[in-house]
Amino acid sequence: MAKIEDVNIFDLETLVNPYEAYQVLRNEAPVFYVPELNIHYVTRYDLIRGALKDTKTFSSQFDSFLNLSREAAMASMPADVQQALKMIERKMVAIPPTMLTLDEPDHTKYRSLVSQLFTGSLIKQSEAQVQSIVQEEIAKLTASTDELGSVDFMSAFAFAVPLRVIADRLGIPSSERTLFDEAAIAAAAGLRLSPQTPDEMLHRAQLALDLQHLMVDLIEARRQDPRDDMITLLANSRLEDSNRLLTHGEALSILNQFLVAGHETTASTFGWGMLMLCERPELQAQIQADIGLVKTFVEEALRIESPVQGLPRVATTDTSLGGYPIKAGEFVMLRYGSANRDERQFEDPDRVNLQRQKAGMQLAFGSGVHHCIGAPLARQELNLGFASLLQQMQNFRLSPQHPQPQAQPSFILRNLPQLHICFDVHPQPN
After folding, report:
1. Range of the domain at 317
2. pLDDT tens per residue, range 101-157
3. Is 59 within a domain?
4. Cα-based distances in Å from 283 to 279, 304, 340, 355, 392
5. Looking at the chain, which terminus has fewer C-beta neighbours within 10 angstroms, N or C?
6. What pLDDT, on a 0 to 100 scale, did the predictor assign at position 2?
């Protein structure tokens, strides 16, 4: 067992598999100062839940943290790359803070504009469409196996389903889906705070600019020709306090958040959940015998491998967490990935338990006023997706021809870049 002096949160092995470090920190230093980032790393469930509820003390206005991270990444690039990135940046629409990095009451005025898209009744109405997408992607998955019977589940299904669902929700034309998919994946990659090569950084910046052009064109088009989609809603909604339409920057800010949150967390959980099924065949049998267990399985997959491992907050006043002093203006990093494996909250936290009571207490979608607004849609996709996979296929297993899957090193998001699996299709009745 590692000791506190051995913990280095930036160590490559820790970024790939942080759970041993989390356990050490929870037990020995649940609020741990990280001098490299000048931030306090919070790992215990009760402390994280308390900070999320206390929005007056722990503010979501952490734009400066993200800006510093981007500036540090840019500073590491060669001078010619920095110049090229600045040229692209000058062409981009400035993005103001909206939902993710605002506090009340400003947060609510933006969130209320889009909350009507995620009501229980509308999510229920979308079930048939999501199920249709799942079925189509399962058909593609079964047709994509190689000569050895294996397929990369991430590219063939895990990313395909949520990207199609969010693109449909937004109203992205079919002719622009290739750009949209590539830009969405690149946007999520940028949030991982992982090292990037100069070429990767330039490519992602150009994709972001191209996507902005597409979104602005669609916003203007929907103002002239409204449709039943999210871009139309944002293009034509008015802020109540000022009775005006959203600026392009405000609309893009909200769209960017849904772009990443609308596919990355769901795709990651599809991947981690499938890996769990492959590693524990008894889970497949239990869910196939009682398909209703898929809901608990989804919550357990979200808990054990939180797709968002953590997000920062900034202290608005001198305060403390668990008796640990924090000064006004200092950042805390709330590690959801650690909270969700806290043995004080979850018995036997490292294992999937299909009988777990209150499995939905996990913090993968955050908590409080910033609880992920798209969580009902993500759960719908995951529940329908895993239920359909397990009803139509069996014997999911890792491909022996490929290396053991492992997480991409990342500080914020947690995903599997590849997951090569084999499976058998259920025989059809005569």
Report:
1. 4-425
2. 888 888 888 888 777 777 778 888 889 999 999 999 999 999 999 988 999 999 999
3. yes
4. 9, 15, 20, 11, 16
5. C
6. 66
Q: How many residues does the chain have?
A: 430
pLDDT (0 to 100) of residue 430: 47
How would you classify the pairing of strands 331-334 and 39-42?
Answer: parallel
Write out the two tokens for 331. 């950042």
Q: Using alpha carbons, select from 334, 363, 330 the residue that is nearest to residue 22.
A: 334
- Where is average pLDDT lowest: 6-10, 81-85, 350-354, 360-364? 6-10
- Using DSSP bridges, classify how beta strands 58-59 and 311-315 pair: parallel, antiparallel or unpaired: antiparallel
Is 430 inside any structural domain? Answer: no
Q: Contact, 148 vs 399, CB < 8 A?
A: yes
CA distance 410 to 396: 27
To the nearest 10 degrees (0 to 180), the angle between helices 248-261 and 198-224 is 120
Among 42, 21, 44, 24, smallest CA distance to 33 is for 42
Residue 90's CATH number: 1.10.630.10
Paired tokens of 330: 């200092």
Question: Cβ–Cβ contacts within 10 Å for residue 111, how many?
Answer: 18
**32 inside domain:** yes
pLDDT tens digits along 391-400? 999 999 999 9
* Amino acid symbol at 46: D
Q: What is the tally of structural domains in the chain?
A: 1
User: Residue 240: is it exposed, middle or buried by C-beta count within 10 angstroms (0-12/13-18/19+)?
Assistant: exposed
Confidence class for position 99, pLDDT limits 50, 70, 90: confident
Q: Is 234 among the domain residues?
A: yes
- Residue 419's pLDDT band, with cuts at 50, 70 and 90, is very high
Alpha-carbon gap, residue 380 to 118, rounded angstroms: 11
Residue that has been written with the tokens 């590539």 in this structure: 182
Contact present, 380 and 123 (Cβ < 8 Å): yes
